[in-house]
Amino acid sequence: MSGHSKWATTKHQKAAKDAKRGKLFAKLIKNIEVAARQGGGDPTGNPTLYDAIQKAKKTSVPNDNIDRAVKRGSGAEAGAADYQTIMYEGYAPNGVALLIECLSDNRNRAAAEVRTALTRNGGQLADPGSVSYVFNRKGVVIVPKEQANGHATEDSILEVVLEAGAEEVNDNGDTWEVVSEASDFVSVRQAIQDAGIDYDSAEASFVPNLQVPLDLDGAKKMIRVIEALEDSDDVQNVYANGDIPDDVLAELDDDEE
Fold first, then answer.
1. 80 within 8 A of 72, measured Cβ to Cβ
2. Three-class SS of residue 130?
3. For residue 205, what are the β-bridge partners?
4. Which residue spans within 64-223 are E strands per DSSP?
5. Which domains does the chain have, with CATH numbers?
6. What is the model's pLDDT at position 4?
7. Is 226 or 59 the better-scoring residue by pLDDT?
8. pTM score, two decimals?
9. Which of 24, 26, 112, 232 lies at a 20 to 30 A Cα distance from 16?
10. 32-44 burial, b if ≥16 CB within 10 A, otherwise e?
């Protein structure tokens, strides 16, 4: 959970400001709608909905859009789509494993768009089960260091989250990444809130247990594939086991400037 995670965190921070903002908003709204449909429209009794709403708010999705998504999902308002979660497995160049999470009301369209994004960028679809073993379902809470409310060291953050079920805290440069079992991440997030610490995101995620170190060329190829996949409206999340070392990450940042 080092280089790639740092890049992913930086990318999502930039995504709130870039030209894909409308597409990102639509995906966050879809998350809210599905969470409300599955667990009800009251965020106090539906942690998945609570976290989906918080993520949308932190990305500046308008409150009206959020409220309407909750109503559609919970059945209080008509117009909800029948979204299904579909997981695809694939490879980026250099043997980087990809887990591609879709929310779609059209399975054929989702499959076609995933296949096209992969093949056009040097990747390929994989057979079910051939990639998923590389990832574990985990809870991940991202805490910006400047908002850590005095908990500026790894040890002090660990004191806050260990009893709640956190397994580790990773230093991702400007942020702390708190990792737990997926079943514990709501209590970990609650412990962070109770300590008066703000956080960027809290969600169940797929974390690689085996990583492929990448040079600059490999990192660019992996990012190209991930961005092509994320350009599909049906793709919600892309998880990869490519590890971008700090020096390569710095080169990537230099290239963007």
1. yes
2. coil
3. 138
4. 84-92, 96-104, 124-125, 135-144, 166-171, 175-181, 201-208, 212-213
5. 3-74 (1.10.10.200), 84-132+210-244 (3.30.70.980), 135-208 (3.30.70.980)
6. 57
7. 226
8. 0.87
9. 112
10. bbbbbbebebebe
Give the span between the Cα atoms of 222 and 174, in whole angstroms. Answer: 23
Provide the token pair at 63.
């409150």
| DSSP secondary structure letters along 90-118 | EEEGGGEEEEEEEEES-HHHHHHHHHHHH
Distance between CA 92 and CA 96 in Å, rounded? Answer: 5
The whole-angstrom separation of Cα 92 and Cα 243 is 13
Length of the chain: 257
Residue at 247: amino acid letter: D
* Encoded amino acid at 225, one letter: V
Is the pLDDT at 16 greater than 60? The verdict is no
Cβ neighbours, 10 Å, residue 156: 15
